[in-house]
Here is the input.
Amino acid sequence: MRALITGISGFVGPHLAEHLLECGDTVLGAAPEGQWGETAPQTMRRAVEIVRWDLAAPEEDAGEAFSRIVAFRPEAIYHLAAISVPRQCGQTAPTPLALRVNVEGTRRVVNLAASLRPAPRVLLVSSSHVYAPVTEESPRVHEESPVGPRDAYGMTKLAAERVVREAIARDGVDAVIARSFQHTGPGQGPQMMLPQWIQQFVETTGPVTVYTRDARIDLSDVRDVVRAYRLLIEYGARGEVYNVGSGVVRTSGEVLDVLRSLADPRRAVFESRPGRKQDPIADISRLVHTTGWRAMIPLEKTVADTLAWWRQRPGPTGAGKP
Here is the structure.
């Protein structure tokens, strides 16, 4: 199918584009800069055109992008574009930029979808951050579990879900919502847990600083996650919400131990915020029942591949590190 990926130049976009191409799809990307990031492989640059569409810019600036998208006639729109690092969205309330990109940007995407003929299917990538806080005794959440974001990022994602539901009801947009849990892999920047640790192993020699070894998390490989996205475009029910996660409880310490064994088992570790932290754990029964999806990539491979990417990536602090 013909697929448009918004936010294609971010962390997930290249992985999704690669998977779609492997499935025989034709891909058009949209990104604020209108181009791939410096780490994108040449094969991807040649295979996928990118149009400049900055969701933070005035809507009238997108005329050229809209014309190209209309001519492309997408059958599927994967809406990844967002400010996705939670602390960049504000603390107790979303920043104006986070609202403009994550909420109003979603409105632009569904309005575009409503105007296209034939009408494409839209996948909104939302987040587990929309759920209310969970307890250690009952950490697992299903799609009907209470929502109640505790951070500004989750607030914007929940608002984006409402925008999509309104478009479904008002304009008949064919859309599916994926609530993604934490995922990682090659290409992820140091704002997130695993690459933040890896950067320290690769670029420094002192103790590695982590928040805590006792965070209970649901962590997936990004390459498994993008497989779920395409399956939801193909098999997901219109208007339905699906958790996309591993469904497995891990501790941050387990992930760290795998990394240390690969990078430097003798490196000391300092916990800056020791103590137990409980994140939601995904009930993925709806996703599995609908699509047959299962996580396939073991944690050890995720960590090893991410470490290898950081050691080999372009730039003076990347390539050539032992």
